[in-house]
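Researcher: Next sequence.
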Amino acid sequence: MDKFKAFLKRKNIEISAKRYFVDALGAMAQGLFCSLLIGTILKTLGQQIPFDFLTDIGTYAMAISGPAMAVAIGYALKADPMVLFSLAAVGWAANAEGGAGGPLAVLIVAIIAAECGKAVSKETKVDLLVTPGVTILVGVALSKLIAPPIGTAASAFGILIDTATKMQPFLMGIVVSVLVGIALTLPISSAAICAALGLTGLAGGAAVAGCCAQMVGFAVISFRDNRWGGLVSQGIGTSMLQMGNIVRNPRIWIAPIVTSAITGPIATCVFKLQMNGAPINSGMGTCGLCGPIGVWTGWISPSEAAISKGAAVMTPGAMDWIGLALICIVLPAVIAPLLNALCRKFGWVKDGDMKI
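Model: Next structure:
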């Protein structure tokens, strides 16, 4: 056992929740952002202008989401170059075989393939053949074997959440908004989770509401501590910047969480807000304004995941735009400070508690 542990250490193979569900998941979201998400935005813009060259660029970017995710995961796992480059083929296979649940399949398959590749890397005199051979064989074989059922399960769970939200928009509006919003601020990737589950439609709208409540909420309530730099870095960056402060004083999280519990059902019950763009947008919030952009692209060019659940092109009316602005920006910016004022009155939150 000691020899095995020494081997794993030498190969930098760390079997831990942090390595696989924080580092790898976060990297996968970045891979998705740099391929599927940005590609969707560019393609939609190209279709609306119209400008065919921009549409082509977006189409190409979207097509390589599988390889982009897998290589990003390999990078997070500190894979050797030969392993890292070989993961492109693995990501393509896992994403293709996983169907609607492709991102989750890529996460699982790429982790296993990367670790197997790292285990054999530089162990033989024919490393040029062995390392990519093992990485690709293991990855593609697993893709054929387990990616389809993983994709089916992830898709079914996503549909279950979507159906439950349609049946119980008030209750599920709260549940989805709060949970995805919390995931956004935690050091895990809410974007990757939403992508893995193919979260779109009404449930996607609730997720957008929860994420925006966290980001805009923290940006506004921490303004006296962080001023304009904090407003921008949290409002269009990430509320994860507050994680260290949350550990020191968890009560600073009350206002954003309760805000998400309020805006979630308003999104689902009052404005019927649906996020039918790329599922990753559901977990992005106001990061680069990707949440609102996802809602917009879903109106004029629904994603395949959304279309599979019955989404169709629509022409947004005044109430749609008003609802989007209120849910994503205005309500979090108003409700969170009011709730935080109560927390300050009770002595739960003090100046400096949210300094980043």
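Model: The radius of gyration is 21 Å. The chain has two domains: 2-155, 168-345.
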